[in-house]
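Deliverable D4.2, example record:
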Amino acid sequence: MKFSINCADLQEGLSISTRALAVRPAQKILEGVLIQCNANNDVILTCIDQKLSIRTVYHADVEEPGTTVLPGRFFTELIRKMPLSDISISSGENDRVNIRCMSSNSTLSGSDSMEFPQMPNLISNVSFHIAQNKFRDMISKTVFATSTDENRQTFTGCLLELTEHEIRLVALDGFRIAVQILNQYTQLPDDRTIVRAIVPGKVLTELSRILQDTETECSISLNDKQIKFEFSNIEVVSVLLTGEYIDYRKMIPTSFKTTIAVNRMKYLEAMDRASLLAKEGKNNTIRMKIDSDHIKLTSHAEVGDVVEYIDIQLEGDPLEIAFNSKYISDIIRNIPDDFISMNFNTNVSPCVIRGNESNDYLYMVLPMRVN
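Output generated by the structure prediction step:
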């Protein structure tokens, strides 16, 4: 194996593919990155763990096609510290790999690539396309609401829900629900009116860091066990979570006794100030007293109190209610509209938050029981 490649391209490829490096691999070979170069002047970088696989492809000048496996984290750190010039990589006897860049000359011990597992070959039941920037936006506005409790595994993922005219991404953790909706036509199998898949939240988080802010499309294909994302020169394959996702629609109220319209930024700024003390308290609690023309926000701790007033438009009954400040702030931060609608029934029933300007998202958060 012998090739030369632009350092910036190699750095980028490694930074993407090594997101799939196994932390505690079942096989030692999975600590490495598979490097393949072919007669088409392609260099292919692949990392695989038990649940996630990432492959990137970059142009290079290939003199001798070949393959090797190098220690993923060490090789990535070495290349990251190289000058931004062309890098020459060649393999010799006993899987020794030489890496040259300007005045730098390093040698690493590689491993036999025959031991490295193959990238999963997914045979899809459903395929569709979505703009990278739209999909990245949907992920960032839902994945924060996934659970970290591995005992409730389905909650650690996002529900991808496809109908003929709509794509939905849903996350919930037992305290809040985040729903993002994209109106887009999707060709479904003839015998299906809806397709559901639970994608691991950690996979979507990594994917959102790779997706680009462009309307160039990401191709998504899936079957009952796996999902594949392809865009630009990148391929990501993940296992899907098993189990039935909770029927979140039945959890969301459709009628309300109290509805307020409030400026999102003014509300968020007041929440941030009140949260400073709420975090010092026992339960991170923010109390809201909703009157005819304003909300009174209060938080208490041993070091002091914060009181904030925000102007609102009220429809329905006044109400006093309390929330975990983090749950509310996370939601408000992910809403793009200038004004939001907050909808209530009682001080122990869920609050549903929507935008006043669009219907492409919905959030729900449970209140806290306080004296």
